[in-house]
């Protein structure tokens, strides 16, 4: 982990880590999804896949706040994230939320419109589908039982396509090796919050241009969840674009290069 890349912001009685790189004039804020280990531990690796963004954007990748307690909700995450952005002086940003990060981003775009210029939602949802409750519920259970091996195996199986897991399985296992009890307890708090997400009314307040990206074989939040977001954006008259990637699973945002290309194209249109 690069000390020059990762920083800590303190505001309203809590701390949050973030990675920052790029030299562009507009901020691009990325809110990751659930992670067994903090993305800050592999912050250096973020620079390569996002290299194309660094000329026009300064990128900020955020972790969740430190010291969370059971019952910490998606709405709480959005409030804390907004407070951090305000503390850093970030506004009128391109906001990209992945999976649970997309749930958080919906609340931010709706309730703090001054912070968001354009919104991108990657493989996210507005309300937990039965499939999501089943899959993420298994992750939560294994995390609470401190079954690190089972948690990692289920996470890889459910998020990545079979071909990707076969090719990079060993590397993924190595990335998540030695998961601590503390990390699993923290993961369980965040994963349980997904069960109670409900942004259906929130979406109606989103007015900024929004890009929704989904994957046809998403076994976590399901592709139908993204379609429901699009339907509500359309009903609200919110300018939006939608793309479904055929043959990819939940982690299409990591597996598919075109995912980021499509985001860059959307942000480039004035």
Task: Write the SSE topology.
Layout (H helix, E strand, L loop, with lengths): L5 E6 L2 E8 L4 E6 L25 E9 L8 H14 L5 E6 L1 H12 L4 E7 L7 H15 L3 H12 L2 H14 L5 H13 L6 H4 L6 E6 L7 H14 L3 E6 L6 H4 L1 H12 L2
Parallel strand pairs: 3-4, 3-5, 5-6, 6-7, 7-8
Antiparallel strand pairs: 1-2, 2-4
Measure the end-to-end span.
35 Å
Quickly count the helices: 10
Return residue spans where pLDDT drops below 50 for at least 5 consecutive residues.
Answer: none
Q: What is the CATH third-level topology name? A: Rossmann fold
Total number of strands: 8
Key descriptive features of the protein:
about 270 residues, alpha/beta, Rossmann fold, eight-stranded mixed sheet
Describe the structure.
- The chain has one domain: Rossmann fold, CATH 3.40.50.1820.
- It has an 8-stranded mixed beta sheet with strand order 1-2-4-3-5-6-7-8, sandwiched between helices.
- The protein starts with 5 loop residues before the first strand and ends with a helix.
- It has helices at residues 74-87, 100-111, 130-144, 148-159, 162-175, 181-193, 200-203, 223-236, 252-255, 257-268, and strands at residues 6-11, 14-21, 26-31, 57-65, 93-98, 116-122, 210-215, 240-245.
- Strand 1 (6-11) and strand 2 (14-21) form a beta hairpin.
- The chain is α/β, with parallel strands linked by helices and 270 residues long.
- Helix 1 packs across helix 2, helix 3 (130-144) packs antiparallel against helix 4 and helix 3 packs antiparallel against helix 6 (181-193).
- It is globular and about 45 Å long.
């Amino acid at each position: 982990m690069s000390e020059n890349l990762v920083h800590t912001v303190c505001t309203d009685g809590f701390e949050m880590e973030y990675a920052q790189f790029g030299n562009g004039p507009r901020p691009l804020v990325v809110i990751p999804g659930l992670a067994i280990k903090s993305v800050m531990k592999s912050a250096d690796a973020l620079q390569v896949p996002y290299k194309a963004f660094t000329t026009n954007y300064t990128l900020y990748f955020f972790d969740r706040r430190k010291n969370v307690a059971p019952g910490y909700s998606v709405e709480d995450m959005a409030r804390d994230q907004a407070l951090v952005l305000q503390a850093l002086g970030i506004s009128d940003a391109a906001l990209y939320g992945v999976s649970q990060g997309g749930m958080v981003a919906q609340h931010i775009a709706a309730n703090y419109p001054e912070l968001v210029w354009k919104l991108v939602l990657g493989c996210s949802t507005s309300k937990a589908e039965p499939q999501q409750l089943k899959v993420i519920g298994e992750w939560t259970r294994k995390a609470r039982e401190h079954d690190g091996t089972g948690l990692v195996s289920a996470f890889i199986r459910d998020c990545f396509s079979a071909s990707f897991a076969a090719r990079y399985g060993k590397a993924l296992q190595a990335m998540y090796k030695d998961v601590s009890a503390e990390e699993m307890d923290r993961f369980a708090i965040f994963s349980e919050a997904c069960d109670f997400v409900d942004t259906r009314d929130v979406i109606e307040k989103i007015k900024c241009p929004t890009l929704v990206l989904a994957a046809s074989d998403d076994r976590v939040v399901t592709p139908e969840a993204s379609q429901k977001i699009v339907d509500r954006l359309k009903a609200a008259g919110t300018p939006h674009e939608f793309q479904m990637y055929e043959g990819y699973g939940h982690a299409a945002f990591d597996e598919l290069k075109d995912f980021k290309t499509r985001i860059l194209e959307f942000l480039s249109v004035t």
